């Protein structure tokens, strides 16, 4: 069914949430409202802007972007020296088109970094060493960013635990599942998407972990988020799986960069923790502009061995929620409870699909 842009009801833009109260030890009132805003944003969108302007310096992200560009303009043979195959198949440089989503090559190149492991062994999936470009300052700056994003992850997790009404004991239990995050960081370069390209800059997908913090350069109109809205059918079939499982109602909306903010979205592990109360949201990148776009998503993930299962706090909310009165109302309670998942096992299965030449 073809739908014209003018047919689409105006969907509100994604919420902007200030994290300042959680960065300030004295603002307990502000913390409650930030946590409530996070809860509402996760229920409705699974995607929001996090205003981190008191935590992240604009110069810091500008420098990360500059270093990324310094790498991407290198001759191809220089970049290939860091190819994924020289590590464990997941760490290093993925050339243009190497990343595949929904069976199609994505029109981007990227540097991929994962949490360092003890006793690395590149023959074991995910267990190799990171490959850092020999660009002065690159590793230092990016490692400092990793530390900052890991710390941010713990802060946002605590704020979300509050938003779900978790007790201090419940939060301590959840905290122990993410306090040694098996993080992933991607430094992505997007050339303009050729008009006849069979695929996207980055195909529609859901992030699979816990929290994504995305820094992106100022290019507008590239990142798109699928906002579910009952009654509005824009897409009958999902590219992600059997149509009957994924028929969704909603529309693609732009998530353009806002200075001082990172875009934050929740991954599939939050879906499990909340027994489907929060949903991991589809997004994609369609970069039709003429610039070379750079984005740096940081994936704050659970610990490798974390056993992720529905949280009692989420079940309490579902039990208190009245059943939807019409078929157009989104049910907060899934048909079946979500199954417990060991994060590392889930990750190994997911990542194997992303690379054409994955080392087994
Ligand atoms: O580049 C972006 O804006 C988004 C990238 C993304 O969604 C991902 O790497 O998972
Ligand atoms: Fe993503």
Automatic annotation (TrEMBL):
Q: Which domain of life is it from?
A: Eukaryota
Q: Where is the Fe2OG dioxygenase domain?
A: 181-302
- PROSITE patterns referenced in this protein's UniProt entry, alphabetically: FE2OG_OXY (PS51471)
Give this protein's Gene Ontology molecular function annotations: metal ion binding; oxidoreductase activity
- Do you know which Pfam families this protein is assigned to? 2OG-FeII_Oxy, DIOX_N
For the keyword Plastid, the answer is no
Ordered alphabetically, the record's keywords are:
Iron, Metal-binding, Oxidoreductase
**To which protein family does this belong?**
Belongs to the iron/ascorbate-dependent oxidoreductase family.
Name of this protein: Fe2OG dioxygenase domain-containing protein
Query: Which organism does this record belong to?
Result: Ceriporiopsis subvermispora (strain B) (White-rot fungus)
């Amino acid at each position: 069914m073809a739908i014209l842009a003018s047919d689409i009801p105006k969907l509100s833009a994604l919420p902007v949430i200030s994290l300042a109260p959680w960065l300030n030890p004295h603002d307990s009132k502000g913390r409650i409202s930030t946590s409530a805003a996070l809860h509402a944003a996760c229920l409705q969108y699974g995607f929001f802007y996090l205003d981190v302007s008191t935590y992240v310096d604009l110069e810091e992200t500008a420098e990360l972007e500059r270093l990324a560009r310094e790498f991407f303009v290198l001759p191809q043979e220089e970049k290939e020296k860091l190819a994924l195959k020289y590590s464990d198949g997941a760490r290093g440089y993925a050339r243009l088109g190497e990343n595949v989503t929904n069976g199609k090559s994505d029109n981007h190149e990227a540097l991929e970094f994962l949490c360092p492991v003890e006793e690395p062994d590149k023959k074991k999936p995910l267990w190799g060493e990171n490959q850092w470009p020999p660009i002065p300052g690159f590793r230092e700056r990016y490692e400092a960013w990793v530390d900052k994003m890991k710390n941010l992850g713990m802060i946002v997790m605590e704020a979300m635990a509050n938003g779900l009404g978790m007790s201090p004991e419940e939060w301590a239990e959840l905290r122990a599942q993410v306090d040694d995050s098996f993080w992933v960081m991607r430094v992505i370069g997007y050339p303009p998407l050729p008009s006849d390209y069979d695929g996207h800059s980055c195909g529609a997908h859901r992030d699979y972990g816990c929290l994504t913090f995305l820094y992106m350069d100022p290019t507008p109109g590239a990142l798109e988020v699928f906002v579910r809205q009952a009654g509005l059918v824009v897409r009958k079939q999902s590219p992600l799986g059997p149509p009957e499982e994924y028929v969704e109602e909603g529309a693609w909306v732009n998530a353009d960069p806002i200075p001082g903010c990172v875009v934050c979205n929740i991954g599939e592990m939050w879906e499990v923790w909340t027994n489907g109360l929060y949903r991991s949201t589809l997004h994609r990148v369609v970069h039709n502009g003429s610039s070379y776009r750079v984005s740096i998503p940081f994936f704050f993930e659970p610990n490798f061995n974390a056993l992720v299962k529905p949280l009692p706090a989420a079940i309490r909310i579902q039990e208190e929620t009245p059943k939807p009165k019409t078929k157009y109302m989104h049910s907060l309670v899934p048909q079946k409870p979500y199954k417990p998942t060991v994060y590392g096992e889930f990750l190994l299965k997911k990542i194997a699909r992303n690379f054409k030449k994955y080392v087994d």
